[in-house]
Amino acid sequence: MSPETPPQVQTLACPHCGAPLTVRSMGRAVTIVCGHCHSILDAKDPQLKILQRFEAATGGESPAIPLGSRGKWRGALYEAIGFQVRSMEADGLTYSWREYLLFNPYKGFRYLTEYNGHWNDCSVTTALPEADGIGARYLGKKYKHFQTCTAHTTFVLGEFPWQVRVDDAVAVTDYVAPPYVLSSEMAGSETTWTLGEYVHGADIWKAFGLPGIAPTPMGVYENQPSALKASAGQTWFACAGLATAIFVIFTLNQLFSQQEQVFREAYSFSPSSTEASFVTPEFELKGRTSSVEVRTDADVSNQWIYLNYALIDADTGQAYDFGREVTYYTGVDSDGHWQEGSQHDRVTLPSIPPGRYYLRVEPESDASLGTIAYTVTVTRDVPVLGVYFLALAAILLPALLISWRTYNFEQMRWAQSDHPMKSVGGGE
């Protein structure tokens, strides 16, 4: 028989209702569930002894993968032969998930599980995992404990390689390492381990030729992989590289900036003056196009002075207008000594071409403050720190945004576990 040959089937009759039964697992079935009356039968008994009658189950769910459906999955042709619904209770709420038993005569059994549109492809482990309740290790991979619960079988259909009954209860413990989930099921003294891998419903629909489209997953599942996590790592790696490049450029700029003082003059201003504006003597900006810093040092004490500046190219008339205020107040109150403002101010004008320049200065102040002395200093080719901070912010913002979304994804994942994450505001 070719590996692609469909499994042979055998037709029997239900001893309870007489409905025909189709056995697909070639003698490996332990129990068969009648699709008509939902009686659970002993497949190993030639008379198909009834193990459990469950007529009420006729109101149960219909499997999304109809029994008898065949599809190529994991490189082999599998047939859906069994379906069961399991439920657990937590915080007064009931959560149900569905399990589909697949069979291939050469590959044996595997399972597809579904909860809220999230699917896992599961098979029995080939070795015994090591577990301590906090985590588990299997084939060299570490898994974190996610949840321990008691699962009850609420609905069954088809055939199974184990004895299944409605209301069967097992202790289920899940350990996760997305996209994998390692699960143990303990019934009495017997423990079964399975390894599940998160898969997409669209792939299952395609493999089994199911009509329509797979339901959209709801929420975040326990072993659902986060595409953002890989993106966050890559983004931070790129961010570190760009930040290093920015630091190197900044250091080189600091080392090679000439910071040449081209003008410095002291002035005094009386608010009672009728014509306070004036122009400075010309000064020359040599070399390449560079930044120009204008610094104002004012002898203010509980005073303020505002200066309307214009840096003007003497040859072209091109003007660069800006205004600066120097304010400094100090005093003593019930809280002690305080001060506000500064007697010094500086502003940097980027990318000023070389040439002959002068400043037009228009000072302003309160007439009651008296004469104010101040000094104006012009320096060319100074480092512009703000550009580097803006560049760092520009590369950090995407990384922080992706990291926040990754954290939020993980918070949603662990919210339904035995170990919910704390919110950022909660001190995580």
Would you kindly provide a written description of the structure presented here, covering whatever features stand out?
The structure is a single chain. The protein has an eight-stranded antiparallel beta barrel with strand order 7-8-9-10-16-15-14-13. Strands 18, 19, 21, 22, 23 and 25 form a six-stranded antiparallel beta sheet that branches. Strands 17-26-20-24 form a four-stranded antiparallel beta sheet, with no helix packed on it. A hairpin with a 2-residue loop joins strand 6 and strand 7. Helix 2 (227-256) runs antiparallel to helix 3. The chain is built from three helices and 26 strands. It is elongated, with a radius of gyration of 39 Å. Helix content is 16%, strand content 47%.
Query: How much helicity do the residues have?
Result: 10-25%
Distance between the termini: 59 Å
Oligomer: single chain
Tell me the number of helical segments per DSSP (H or I, 4 or more residues long).
Answer: 3
How many distinct beta strands? 26
The sequence of SSEs as H and E is EEEEEEEEEEEEEEEEHHEEEEEEEEEEH
Structural class label: alpha+beta
Strand composition percent: over 45%
Spatial extent as radius of gyration: 39 Å
Molecular shape: elongated
The low-pLDDT segments are 55-59, 424-428
For the biggest sheet, the summary is:
8 strands, antiparallel, barrel
Overall residue-averaged pLDDT value: 87
Number of domains: 3
Record the strand order, biggest sheet.
7-8-9-10-16-15-14-13
Please give a quick description of this structure:
It is built from three helices and 26 strands. With about 425 residues, the chain is α+β, with helices and mostly antiparallel strands. Helix 2 packs antiparallel against helix 3.
